[in-house]
């Protein structure tokens, strides 16, 4: 059989994509003697000639033919070739060779092998003959008939479907040779047109009718799936058109349908890899490399038919390939079940990722929709393969090389983003109507005693939605439960090696990594792919952003001082311990009145009557004390939820909205200054801060008892609901003073009973009242204060609500062994010092409360940073010889000073006294 691909013919047993047949298989002993040697020599000669022609095309594109009057649009001498990078020129050269484009005479090959540069824009018969003068294998009568039937076409298209692939496999088994299968797979999987037009639904075999026993055992989900498949088939049959005879050219770009029969693909793969898996690996790998190169060239050079306007770049003697066809090819290729194995992981998968990284935004969105609808079960294994690919690359890459510049890492990350959004679409999505804008909170400044804030008409968060999320019209806040847990997307090895200072610099270039056109895109930034980074690494990005803003404000203050306008370069708060709330709120109120931008300066706290310079430790203590006071139930701004052990806004608080705004400022300042707080909000507070209203499912964390009651009401199926529950649309609640109050969820709610028809409405209205309506004024004021500090921060871009909770409260995992492993020693102490060994023995034996006191004594906070205690660099330093002095600490620098006590008992006694009586004393 003669197959034409890449502009040259191949012999039976050789793949047109450069795929060599495996000679170590079980059928190799059936080949005639000398066949392998002869085929190998033929392939070498053919490859050399192919290489020569591609080189000539390359130099034609880069150097030209030397004819000033050349009209060949693919010759540099004509002036029609745009500036090409070497990679682009090489890719286009491959394409031109494949399309048998005009080759100017005189174009040189390798250095010294060029012909005289004679003007010519048409290929001579000798050149054409040379291109076709490749070995012509013997063909059977059946194959000749098949070739003659397609002789009118300039290009031979080999396509597959399940039936045809099974027939080829049966033939190979009958002939006891797998070479025919290798050739077919090479022809199909090396060509975007061939693969993209394979396994179409119009070509799939009819489904077998179900037996009565199968129908009896079907679940509701099975029935729905069958109905969906029927609808998809009808949609395809109605829109079938085009040269391929399929419906994919008629599909809308926003559709989640695909012309590929993925069930048929999976059945075919199952049998293929069961029978011939090890025999076809090399063939498929090489074919996929060729496929990836063609797709990349098509996308980069614009050789694609747009699905929207039907336009395309001009091709030579060829109809443009549709973007839908390329997507089909990628979908089929990425369905290969062995992509995560070594053979594919090392070469083929990186190439496919690189090709997919050039997909335009609309195609990425289309792929995400198709995967979410048809390949949900495949996403996890594909994600695992990409994670493995990135991890392996991180391990072997040089530490001197930036991962942002390594396409073997960035390309899989870009494909992972498509899986990320497909996981969101395939998960449990809430209505976008639950998303809040900032208009309500923005208006709260008018209610403050000082009126509208100068220079801040509104504190809307910067628009940081991902372009792919906008194209899909989905937001991570909408997803209550993704198909794949968010934590599965974290790549810890990558997060550990990312240099966030460089990554942040790349992020500040707003085009960083967003464009599919590499020539116009700036450096890649993982901040725009934050789902792959651990919260600890993302915290560093936020830290750099905050510090740069602090330095900017400090520089502006210095410049103001130079021009005679005195300004404080820091946000200074001077407070008394006994009146810390009043003093802090008054100070912050003055700052908010005069210039809210001063809140973005570095915080410096001074306790009146106490000596010390705030290098971070005093601020930690300040926040700890103010949080203890603010969230004390006696302060009446927040109430304590006994059931969930969380605090909530007091709906009956006598405090003004300004007080809640200032509390929001305190929370924002803690994040801005990288300080962890001991606060216990339910998760719904962080969701609301990020822009999503509270809903029924949030009650599980807010009030578990109430949630279970409402869940039982929703699950009740009896017809006697009104008599059983006796619940109307009037609800009762108790305020902080113990008074019983009522609220009607809708007009005349006390006369409307909850029944089977309106129970969902009741639950939604009740949850909305508890989580949104009843605290609207208090929360909007609180959110306003929070945004006054974080309005320009990439907080929304980097963190999900669950991660914001970690950012505010720290990690819940308290493991002193992590702290021990990360601790450093100074002043003469080492890990083998007797005092050090005694210290850790005592520390591990302490009860949990005392361990937290020890952490607070040494660092100024008992909270665990994001990422665990291993992220906290504690230093234990020698503080002189044995004495009766107590241990001391420099909390600003996390330094614990220990005298060289002569016994373990003495160390134990002095250490416990220090940690139990240390508040306001002994810490600098």
Walk me through this protein's architecture.
Its EC number is 2.3.2.26. It holds the Pfam family AZUL. It is an enzyme of class 2 (transferase). The active site is at residue 892. By secondary structure, the protein is mainly alpha-helical. Among the domains are: 55-104, no CATH class; 568-807, Hect, E3 ligase catalytic domain fold; 811-917, Hect, E3 ligase catalytic domain (Hect, E3 ligase catalytic fold), CATH 3.30.2410. Helices cover 48% and strands 6% of the residues. It has 35 helices and 16 strands. Helix 5 packs across helix 10 (262-301) and helix 23 (657-672) runs parallel beside helix 29. The longest helix is centred in the first third of the chain and has 40 residues, at 262-301. It is globular. The model is unreliable at 1-40, 110-155, 205-216, 223-251, 307-318, 445-462, 511-520 and 920-924 (pLDDT under 50).
Q: Helices, strands, pairings?
A:
Layout: E1 4-5, E2 8-9, H1 35-62, H2 86-98, H3 125-132, H4 141-149, H5 162-175, H6 179-189, H7 192-196, H8 212-216, H9 220-238, H10 262-301, E3 304-305, E4 321-322, H11 323-333, H12 342-356, H13 361-374, H14 376-396, H15 407-426, E5 428-429, H16 439-442, H17 467-472, E6 479-481, H18 492-497, H19 500-508, H20 535-562, E7 571-575, H21 580-594, E8 603-607, H22 617-630, E9 638-641, E10 646-649, H23 657-672, H24 683-690, H25 699-702, H26 704-715, H27 721-725, E11 730-734, E12 740-744, H28 759-771, H29 776-790, H30 795-798, H31 801-809, H32 816-822, E13 824-826, H33 834-845, H34 848-859, E14 875-878, E15 888-890, E16 895-898, H35 904-916
Parallel strand pairs: 3-4, 7-8, 13-14, 14-16
Antiparallel strand pairs: 1-2, 5-6, 9-10, 11-12, 15-16
Helix pairs in contact: 1-2, 2-10, 5-6, 5-10, 6-10, 10-12, 12-14, 12-15, 13-14, 13-15, 14-15, 19-20, 23-29, 24-31, 34-35
Domain HECT: 595-924
GO molecular function: ubiquitin protein ligase activity; zinc ion binding
Biased composition (Low complexity): 139-152
């Amino acid at each position: 059989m003669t197959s034409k691909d890449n502009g040259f013919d191949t012999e039976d047993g050789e793949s047109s994509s450069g795929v060599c047949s495996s000679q170590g298989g079980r059928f190799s002993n059936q080949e005639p003697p000398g066949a392998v040697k002869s085929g190998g020599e033929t392939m070498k000669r053919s490859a050399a000639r192919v290489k020569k022609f591609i080189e000539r095309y390359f130099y034609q594109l880069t150097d030209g033919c030397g004819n000033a009057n050349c009209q060949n649009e693919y010759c540099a001498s004509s002036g029609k070739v745009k500036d090409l990078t070497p990679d682009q020129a090489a890719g286009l050269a491959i394409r031109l060779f494949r399309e048998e484009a005009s080759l100017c005479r005189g174009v040189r090959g390798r250095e010294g092998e060029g012909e005289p540069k004679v003007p010519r824009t048409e290929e001579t018969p000798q050149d054409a003959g040379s291109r076709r003068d490749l070995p012509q294998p013997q063909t059977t009568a059946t194959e000749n008939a098949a070739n003659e039937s397609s002789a009118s076409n300039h290009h031979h298209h080999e396509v597959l479907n399940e039936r045809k692939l099974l027939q080829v496999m049966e033939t190979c088994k009958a002939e006891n040779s797998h070479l025919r299968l290798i050739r077919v797979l090479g022809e199909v999987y090396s060509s975007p047109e061939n693969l993209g037009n394979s396994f179409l639904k119009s070509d799939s075999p009819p489904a077998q009718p179900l037996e009565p026993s199968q129908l009896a055992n079907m679940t509701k989900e099975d029935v729905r799936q069958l109905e969906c498949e029927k609808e998809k088939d009808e949609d395809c049959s109605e829109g079938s058109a085009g040269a391929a005879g399929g419906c994919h050219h008629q599909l809308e770009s926003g559709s989640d349908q695909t012309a590929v029969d993925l069930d048929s693909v999976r059945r075919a793969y199952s049998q293929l890899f069961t029978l011939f898996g090890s025999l076809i690996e090399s063939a498929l790998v090489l074919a996929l490399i060729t496929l990836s190169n063609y797709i990349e060239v098509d996308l980069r050079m614009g050789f694609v038919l747009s699905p929207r306007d039907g336009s395309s770049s001009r091709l030579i003697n060829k109809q443009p390939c549709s973007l839908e066809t390329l997507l089909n090819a990628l979908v089929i290729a990425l369905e290969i079940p062995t992509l995560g194995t070594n053979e594919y992981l090392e070469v083929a998968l990186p190439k496919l990722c690189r090709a997919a990284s050039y997909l335009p935004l609309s195609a990425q969105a289309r792929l995400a929709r198709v995967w979410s609808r048809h390949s949900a079960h495949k996403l996890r294994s594909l994600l695992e393969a990409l994670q493995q690919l990135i991890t392996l690359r991180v391990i072997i890459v040089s530490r001197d090389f930036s991962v942002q510049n390594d396409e073997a890492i960035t390309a899989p990350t870009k494909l992972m983003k498509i899986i990320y959004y497909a996981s969101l679409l395939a998960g449990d999505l809430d209505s976008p109507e639950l998303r809040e804008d900032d208009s309500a909170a923005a208006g709260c400044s008018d209610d403050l005693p000082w009126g509208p804030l100068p220079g801040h008409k509104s504190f809307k968060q910067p628009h940081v939605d991902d372009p792919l999320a906008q194209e899909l019209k989905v937001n991570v806040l909408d997803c209550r439960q993704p198909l794949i847990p968010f934590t599965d997307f974290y790549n810890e090895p990558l997060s550990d090696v990312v240099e966030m200072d460089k990554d942040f610099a790349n992020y500040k270039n707003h085009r960083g990594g967003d464009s599919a056109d590499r020539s116009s895109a700036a450096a890649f930034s993982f901040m725009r792919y934050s789902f792959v980074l651990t919260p600890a690494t993302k915290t560093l990005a936020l830290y750099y952003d905050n510090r740069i803003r602090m330095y900017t404000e400090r520089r502006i203050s210095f410049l103001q001082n130079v021009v005679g306008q005195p300004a404080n370069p820091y946000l200074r708060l001077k407070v008394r311990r006994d009146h810390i709330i009043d003093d802090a709120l008054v100070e912050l109120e003055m700052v908010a009145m005069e210039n809210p931008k001063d809140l973005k300066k570095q915080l410096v706290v001074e306790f009146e009557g106490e000596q010390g310079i705030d290098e971070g430790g005093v601020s930690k203590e300040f926040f700890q004390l103010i949080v203890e006071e603010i969230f004390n139930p006696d302060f009446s701004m927040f109430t304590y939820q006994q059931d969930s052990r969380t605090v909530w806004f007091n709906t009956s608080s006598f405090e003004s909205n300004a007080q809640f705004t200032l509390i929001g400022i305190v929370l924002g300042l803690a994040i801005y200054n990288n300080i962890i707080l001991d606060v216990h909000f339910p998760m719904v507070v962080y969701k609301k801060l990020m822009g999503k209203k509270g809903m029924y499912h949030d009650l599980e964390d807010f009030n578990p008892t109430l949630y279970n009651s409402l869940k039982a009401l929703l699950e009740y199926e009896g017809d006697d609901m009104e008599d059983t529950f006796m619940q109307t649309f009037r609800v009762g609640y108790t305020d902080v003073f113990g008074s019983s109050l009522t609220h009607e969820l809708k007009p005349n709610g006390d006369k409307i009973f909850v029944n089977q028809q309106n129970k969902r409405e009741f639950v939604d209205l009740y949850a909305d009242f508890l989580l949104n309506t009843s605290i609207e004024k208090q929360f909007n004021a609180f959110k306003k204060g929070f945004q006054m500090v974080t309005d320009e921060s990439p907080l929304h871009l980097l963190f999900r609500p669950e991660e914001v909770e970690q950012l505010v409260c720290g990690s819940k995992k308290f493991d002193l062994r992590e702290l021990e492993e990360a601790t450093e020693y100074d002043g003469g102490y080492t890990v083998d010092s007797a005092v050090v060994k005694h210290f850790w023995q005592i520390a591990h034996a302490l009860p949990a409360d005392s361990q937290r006191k020890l952490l607070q004594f040494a660092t100024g906070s008992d909270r665990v940073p994001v990422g665990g205690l291993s992220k906290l660099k504690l230093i234990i330093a020698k503080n002189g010889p044995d004495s009766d002095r107590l241990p001391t600490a420099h909390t600003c620098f996390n330094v614990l000073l220990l005298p060289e006590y002569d016994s373990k008992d003495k160390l134990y006694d002095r250490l416990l006294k220090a940690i139990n009586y240390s508040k306001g004393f002994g810490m600098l």
